[in-house]
Amino acid sequence: MTLPVRRASRRRTPVVRRASAGIAARRIGAALVAVAALAAIFGAATSPAFELRQLDVEGARYTPTSAVDAALGLAATPHPNVFVLDTARLRRALLALPAVTDARLRVELPDRLVVRLAERQPILVWASSNERWLVDVEGVVMGPATPGDPATAGLPVFADDRSGRRPLAPGDTLDATDLAVARRLGALTPKLLGSRAATFSFEITDADGFTVSSVPRGWLAVFGMYTATLRSPDLIPAQVQCLASLLAQVGERKVASVYLFPEGDQCGTFTSRSGP
What we know:
The chain is α/β, with parallel strands linked by helices and 276 residues long. The chain has helices at residues 20-46, 65-72, 87-95, 176-186, 190-193, 236-250; strands spanning 54-58, 100-108, 112-119, 122-128, 131-136, 141-144, 157-160, 199-205, 209-215, 220-224, 255-263, 266-272.
C-alpha cells in the first residue's frame, strides 16, 4: 500500500524594509531648516537695519509726548532692535497713564513703531492751588489743563477755594459728591436759565459751598454744600428751576445774589442790586 505524497508549499517570506534611513534623512533636513531659521532670526535681531529709528504716536491729545516716551522707556536703550521689542509690556506701561484707556502697538519693518492711543475725554476743569486739572466723566484727573489750549475751550471751570482740600495729581479721582454736583452745575447754560449772560463761572468756598455767577459781572447764585446723605446733589434740579423762575420774574439785572434752599413752596432768598 502506497500513501499519497503531499508536497510542501513554499511560503514567501515578506521583505521588511527598514524606514530608519528615511526618517533620519527627514530629521536631518528639519534640523537644518530649524538651524537656518534660528540663524536668520538671530541675524535679524542683531542687524542694524532693524534698529528702531521711527516712533509714531497717534491719538495723544491729552497725553504729553514726554509722558509717552517715559512710559515706553525706549530712551534707556537707544535704537533697540524691533524684533526684540516686548510690545505687551509696552502696552501695559501705556495703559498706566492717567488719560489713556487703550493702546495699540504695531511694528512696521524695518525700523518703525506705531503707537495708537485711545484717551479719556474731559468734561470739566478743576482748579485748585494755582493748578488746573482736566477731569473726565468718571472723575479721573487726566492731567494738567493748559490755559488757552483749544482742548479746554468751552469746558466749565470749577475754582475750588475751600481750605483743607487735598492736593490733586494725575490719576487721582474727585470726591464722588463733588463730581456729581459739578456734572449737574457744569451742564447749566445761559439759555437754560433764560439769562443774557455770556457764560457762567463756578466756585466752591468754605462759606457758601458751590456757587454760580453770571459773566460778565452780574448775579451770584449760592447753591450751597452737599453730602451723600444729608443734602444730596439730587436737590439741584429744584434749585435750578427756582433760579430760572426768579430771574424771569424779577429780572436778572435787579438780582444781586440768590440763596437757593428750596423747601415746600419756598425757593430761598435773594438780594436786589442797588442802582441801575
